[in-house]
From TrEMBL:
Biological processes annotated in GO: amino acid transport; glycine betaine transport; response to osmotic stress
Name of the protein in its database record: Quaternary amine transport ATP-binding protein
NCBIfam families, per the entry: proV (TIGR01186)
GO molecular function: ABC-type quaternary ammonium compound transporting activity; ATP binding; ATP hydrolysis activity
Protein's organism: Paenibacillus prosopidis
Membrane topology, as annotated: Peripheral membrane protein
InterPro entries xref list: AAA+_ATPase, ABC_osmolyte_uptake_ATP-bind, ABC_transporter-like_ATP-bd, ABC_transporter-like_CS, CBS_dom, CBS_dom_sf, Gly-betaine_transp_ATP-bd, P-loop_NTPase
One Gene Ontology cellular component: plasma membrane
Taxonomic path: Bacteria, Bacillati, Bacillota, Bacilli, Bacillales
Keywords on record: Amino-acid transport, ATP-binding, CBS domain, Cell inner membrane, Cell membrane, Membrane, Nucleotide-binding, Transport
Enzyme class at the top of the EC tree: translocase
Catalytic activity from the UniProt record: a quaternary ammonium(out) + ATP + H2O = a quaternary ammonium(in) + ADP + phosphate + H(+)
Amino acid sequence: MAIIEAKRLTKIFGADPKKAIPLLDKGWSKDKIFAETKLTVGVNQADFAIEAGQIFVIMGLSGSGKSTLVRLLNRLIEPTSGQVLFNGTDVLRMSPEQLRQFRRKNVGMVFQKFALFPHRTVIQNIEYGLEVQGIDKKKRREMAMESLELVGLKGWENSYPDQLSGGMQQRVGLARGLANDPDVLLMDEAFSALDPLIRKDMQDELLELQAKMKKTIVFITHDLNEALRIGDQIALMKDGSIVQIGSPEEILMQPANKYVERFVEDVDLSKVLTASHVMVKAETITIEKGPRVALQFMRDRGISSLYVVDKMMRLLGVITADDAVHAIKNGLKLEEAMQREAPSAVPETLLHELFELMSNSKFPVSVIDQSGRLKGIVIKGAVLAALSGNTVLEAGERHETA
Ligand SMILES: Nc1ncnc2c1ncn2[C@@H]1O[C@H](COP(=O)(O)OP(=O)(O)OP(=O)(O)O)[C@@H](O)[C@H]1O
Ligand SMILES: [Mg+2]
């Protein structure tokens, strides 16, 4: 079950906001509604479900409704209509006490402007939320220290924010968001104010934290590369509406419309797509077969080489038609005639790292998993097709082997 679900979630700003709802139903645009009614559409009938443990990225240009949407989830902004479900419970029907508990136990929030108190020490900043919740002094110090260690700031607890770099200040913000050990962390442009290199470090650390703690994270950014890097799912917003939700790969390879297309057209696919995206099925033969079988097999399929594997599909070498002919003439076994020096990569290898491997080799690059099993091969044509934006192979086609 989804941990968070939004159903036709809508926010209209202005006097008498509900009167815009029937206009949205009629399909009026944000601009038209503003022109006719002076009401601003913040979020327009958003529908989505976030699975526990996912990083769900909300992306879009300035003013598209990202911050509004994320604040509707914990009712920092009150929705005009629609539903928010948390583990199946309707957040909009919670009593004030239930809502207080929900915010205290279930959600944490991290903002772009670190929003640290300058006259409080690091640890006092981290404790702030816990203090507001009335957690006693000893307990909250304990929780805050744990959170501080998690973000790698041990030793800095008694420093003041202005003694820290921007990246460290953002860590304090992150630690504060994590201090109550929430199920869901809402992050609104949390890394946007950081230098590019520090930003990349923070992304890595967030991914690490996520792997360790299995939090559900709703992450807002207007940076596509950041979204592609950390998102399990990406929701792209325009004028308050979600125009597409999908995995990074789906957003890149199957943009839902011209707007999404324009958003993704400048992405360097070679730094996003991996070997697993472009590999194709490899023709294989098991090691105990003879060179005659190998040669026959190649002739039948009109190919000039085969990947030699054991029964577990572990890659042992490559045999070409010439090698097989040579083996037959000289009475050699397959394993004596095959070549062992074929280039290989792991499924996660990025395309731009594959280029060099490919240019130095007469064979396609083989793709091998952690236990040495052959998952597929990368041929130049497939890489070029993917880079030119053509759809890569269906998932099913990628993994089978003969
Ligand atoms: N309190 C408010 N009163 C009136 N209009 C608002 C209010 N807050 C947001 N809006 C409007 O709602 C729309 C969405 O704003 P929002 O702040 O959610 O965008 P955003 O995608 O987070 O933008 P940014 O990238 O600049 O942070 C905008 O048109 C904005 O002007
Ligand atoms: Mg915003």
